[in-house]
Design a protein that fits this description.
The structure holds two protein chains of two kinds. Chain A is an alpha/beta fold. Helices cover 40% and strands 21% of the residues of chain A. Chain A has two domains: 257 residues, TIM Barrel (Alpha-Beta Barrel), CATH 3.20.20.70; 74 residues, Arc Repressor Mutant, subunit A (Orthogonal Bundle), CATH 1.10.10.920. Chain A is globular and about 55 Å long. By secondary structure, chain B is an alpha+beta fold. Chain B has five domains: 179 residues, Rossmann fold; 85 residues, Translation factors (Elongation Factor Tu (Ef-tu), domain 3); 72 residues, Alpha-Beta Plaits, CATH 3.30.70.870; 107 residues, Alpha-Beta Plaits (2-Layer Sandwich); 111 residues, Elongation factor 4, C-terminal domain (Alpha-Beta Plaits, 2-Layer Sandwich), CATH 3.30.70.2570. Classes of the chains: A alpha/beta, B alpha+beta.
Amino acid sequence: MPLIEADPAAGLYIHIPFCRAKCTYCDFNSFAGLEPLYGEYVRAVAQELESGPRAELRTVYIGGGTPTVLPLSDLSHLLEAARRGRPLPPGTEVTIEANPGTVDGAVLDGLLSLGVNRLSLGIQSFDDEELQLLGRIHTAAEALAAFQAARDAGLQNISLDLIFGLPGQDLDAWRASLDRALDLGPEHLSLYALSVEPGTRLAASIRQGELPRPDPDLAADMYELAEEACAAAGYQHYEISNWARQDGLRCEHNLIYWRNEAYVGVGAGAHSWARGQRWANVASPSAYVALISRGESPLASSEAIPPELEMGETMMMGLRLLDEGVPFERFRRRFGSDLRQRYAAEIDELDQLGLVEVDEERLRLAPRGRLLANQVFYRFLPL
Amino acid sequence: MMDQERIRNFSIIAHIDHGKSTLADRLLEQTGTLTDREMMDQVLDSMDLEREKGVTIKASAVRMAYRGEGGQEYVLNLIDTPGHVDFTYEVSRALEACEGALLVVDASQGVQAQTLANLYLALDADLTIVPIINKIDLPSARPEEVAQEVEDLLGIPAEEAIYTSAKEGTGAEAVLRAVVERIPAPRGQGDAPLRALIFDSHYDPYKGVIAYVRVVDGDLRLDEQLLLMSNRQPVDPLEIGVFRPGMKPTDRLGAGEVGYVATGLKTLQDCRVGDTLTVKANPAQQLLPGYRPAKPMVFAGLYPADGEDYELLRDALAKLQLNDASLVYEPETSQALGFGFRCGFLGLFHMDIIQERLEREYDLDVVFTSPSVEYQVLKTDGQVVAIDNPAKLPPEQEIDQIEEPWMQIQVFTPAEYIGPVMDLVTKRRGEVTKMEYLDAQRVLLAYEIPLSEIVVDFYDHLKSRTRGYASLDYSPADYRPGDLVKLEVLVGGQPVDALSIIVHREHAFLKGQKLVSKMREVIPRQMFDVAIQAAQGNRVISRATVKALRKDVLSKCYGGDVTRKRKLLEKQKAGKKRMRKVGQVEIPQEAFLSVLRLGDE
């Protein structure tokens, strides 16, 4: 990880590619049934962390997969390796993703003692039938229990993930799940529209007619319903899919992605971005373990990002932030040019389509642009 | 100089698959023109496509030596004819080069529409007909009945028919003997100024256009400058010769002989089939009768499915045209489909063949717009304009009358399918002119029908309605006024040029509905509602709406994989770049293609 050196502060992502069971909609780099590999994998990731240079961490995010399938001792080992020689200023956000079926009071106490201060719970739905359709390993009741346990353990920054636009889900069903999530009063909410990815079991079920194909217009209605409900409950809609109770409760780690700032990922398939380079490790956990154990680089690909592309990526990611958008001054400091001039034609066209707003300080999505954000983003990519 | 008495020029008339090529092979073998080792199956059909489709696209010729009874040596020239209905003119010129024809009829299938059509051409050319009943080896063969059928049709006594099995090689000698005995020798004037009929041609990269000729009068010599009579084009022959079956140079061809002239000309268009070659210094007074410039009947826009292939398509058409003088084309630009070509074809089969050759030989994915015929439009100001592209039809209020080409078609079908055939033809505005039972089972149906009604999938429907048993022939009749209207498809209020068609008023509504519903399926949702309309003149007869796009946003970016997200957006942007704009509406070219490719029914 020579790049942390050059960028004294970066976000750190640690990938745990393991799950108890593969969810039907999931096409991420995660695998069920790899329990025998856990130990070796943790050692390999620790080694990747150990061999990297020392630099200050802005955030730590342990994601997956389901990081909490690992025993506490493994997680502890990983966090120790991450911190060794790397300053972690007090109050730095340390997030772990957890599946409600994998945490109890003891685990949560342990996580807190390891310095984890933010929990991202993959609830997805409060409807057992929907949970089954998604292939989740937990019930709605277990999800509620996990949340309560996290509160009882003392976690004060909990985020819940929900998915909408499921096959067969109607507005009322979505409203019901959402209301239960809001009733819990989490600090943060991530609400994602289901995307049916090729190669998943869900895609096959839909293709074979076992499940209805989700209607994108209904998903749009659900999104608008969520916007209203979250606003009414006092949440700030700060990113296309993310809501926070207040400024300080936004996800710091994800803000690094959205602001296109430096982060380093370790573990199988983890992605990194720093110093004009994007790179990624090999996706296969066993290949990753094998490379690390032979002392070889786990790198699978890397790409130099020329300034013009970096600008485009900065727009594409930055415009996801709804109130922040892309501030002109920040853009100017980073690229030495005025965003309004650089993208005059694009902004003009998007403005006429009612998809963006420009004020004195920044460019951001107009409310109409939130559901049509791709139409905005691609215009900023060089091609 | 070859004595004309020792020459016989003949061709073979047969329906597809009745065994013409196999019989030709047997004759070549029998006369020793090819040794067994040189013998390839079906020598005369040189293109793969012909072999597969069972049709002969290009005519060819071969000279055989035959020793008759009593040891007399003869030269037999077999002139092959193109085997399908679009090439009637070419067939007629090839037959004109002969004195006789072998009429090959399948012993189980009997006479078919195409056989009859070519037979009429042969009779027009005053040829002596020798009936051959082929495939007598088949279990279903009924040679006597078929011979009787031929007698009924032609008046040639059934007992004069020769029975063959070209496949097994039986009867070849009898055929050769009949050629010598029954077909007359040429009767040209050896001392008159040269007149040689061009009955076919091909392009050779080194020698230019090779004209296939039948010397009618006079002498064709290598050392004399020649002249093409129709266009006064001088020709300095690079080589003359005969086909045996390869090209074998000689220094002269006398009256009655068949051979070739390497002209050095660069395009087939300069050297038309049916034209007459004469000697420039001592020209003949009159062209041989029957010359007609090539006249396309069916027109379509050809567009590369991938715009980047435009140059490849242009080169491919140029190469096809080198060997197909009847293919005409010119550049055309469509708002919807980009750069392409307006092409004219002799008929629907010709168009199919070009399409297939572009795909197969040039590996091009080419989109054909709905084929059109050439309309004669009488305008209110008295002008008459020929329109072969519906998009170019003048506005309704400027049109006094539209005339369209009508055809005569003949369908041979088993009697049980009369109903379905009638139904098909009358649905397409056809009118019965004749119905004749050839025997208890088979019927000849003659109709007149607008060409526009048969250019799209008529033949396919005819085949499927008759389980493949019907055969079809057609020939131009005349132009007749029709109650025709232009049907336009409008997207967001703008007409889409490539989708305009000219239809009969009564069909406009249904066609309009179909086009609109097809378009609605394939136009992606835009940032606003898009109206799709079918309009007849200024009147909208069908409409539908593509609702505005509501949701187009990528969800979460897992673990910082920005690249994947970016690639998806880049793909979206690249797709957008390839889109055609009709007004404000962006439509992927694939959408037009799928509308054009969806069959008519």
